[in-house]
Amino acid sequence: AALKEAPGSNPRLADGIVSLAQLYVAQGKPKAAERLLKRALAIQERNLGPGHPAVADSLNNLGILYHGQKKYEAAERLHAQALAIQEKALGSEHPDVAFTLNNLGVQHTAQGKYEVAERLYARALAIQEKALGLEHPDVADTLNNLAVLYENQKRYAEAEDLHMRALAIQEKYFGPEHPEVAESLTNLANLYQVLGWYGEAEPLYTRALAIQEKSLGPEHPRVAATLDNYGALLRAMKHPDEAEQFTARAKAIRSKQGS
Description:
By secondary structure, this protein is mostly helical. It is 81% helix and 0% strand.
């Protein structure tokens, strides 16, 4: 999930803090990002009060960062706090509520609380489809998250259907060369890899990598992640030399980022 803008009484300052934090996240500098996001949260609470939706945005931003650090319980607490603020301030059917429900679902999935996560995703999806329409990219995000949950439960056919639906939404909304399309391609490729469908997985990784390198640059963290996944696939396909080239490149990207 992407960090969300959190305007305060000085929108330029708050937006600048969040934007810089986004940059640090992309550069693989989570500690620097955390310091900025905590500063943004303090600004929102001081200027707007603890029950303002902007505070919820800052709580969500911190939760997303903590998820990336595998601090799932801490992230869950932040998202739950954000949800309570949003439901009171915005109402239970607001798209921002769905965004936070999605975040909570991700944390519960990571902790193996699948039944709770599925209920959260179902509620988020219902809100999004009603408020935003069936073909909005936020709907695709929820579909992808629910698909990952189904994969963890070995409900592979259902997971494939959701990943493909998400991919179709994103290709229509963003166009075929967008980074979000690449994310859905890698999600589907990961599923096929788990199923041993290597021939189906490889062209998806190839296409995703081409999109990411063109749109994000050859040394972006998402490129490194796709290179690692592609390398794992090539090892499974008994192509160790090619696999090593991909994993070595991923390692070099991360080394430059200092992560």
